[in-house]
Amino acid sequence: MHEMALTESIVDIICEEARKQGFGKVRVVRLQVGAMAHVEPEALRFCFDAVSRGTVAEGATLDIRRPPGEAWCFDCGKTVAMEERFGACPDCGGRRVQMTSGDELRIDELEVD
């Protein structure tokens, strides 16, 4: 379950920002977890509840946005929807595609007190 290590990193980042910016409580953590990031949102929520205990993030709500997979196809010159990370272009079948969305994992915003 790599979600535990990911969650520990997220909480570390939040705690570091609390020290830098001087806030004492986090109410909402907005995350982007791409549909092809190989991260289970429910596992992330479960781990967040455990890892955030005793920190400024304890009790915060995780608001997880799931951007779909998209890629740029160099063969047909289009932005295409992707169902798998290393798949072929669904329009032309070309293999020269570069992911542009759907594999991200990042903190977008914190609501704090």
Describe the structure.
This protein has 113 residues and is α+β, with helices and mostly antiparallel strands. The protein has helices spanning 3-21, 41-51, and strands at 26-33, 61-65, 70-73, 78-81, 97-101, 105-112. The strands form two sheets. The chain has a three-stranded mixed beta sheet, with helices on one face. Strands 4-3-5 form a three-stranded antiparallel beta sheet, with no helix packed on it. Helix 2 links the parallel strand 1 (26-33) and strand 2 (61-65). Helix 1 crosses helix 2 (41-51). The protein is elongated, with a radius of gyration of 17 Å. The chain starts with a helix and ends with a strand. The model has no long low-confidence stretch (mean pLDDT 95). It comes from Methylocystis echinoides. This is Hydrogenase maturation factor HypA. GO terms for molecular function: metallochaperone activity; nickel cation binding; zinc ion binding. InterPro entries: Hydgase_Ni_incorp_HypA/HybF_CS (IPR020538), HypA/HybF (IPR000688). Involved in the maturation of [NiFe] hydrogenases. Required for nickel insertion into the metal center of the hydrogenase.
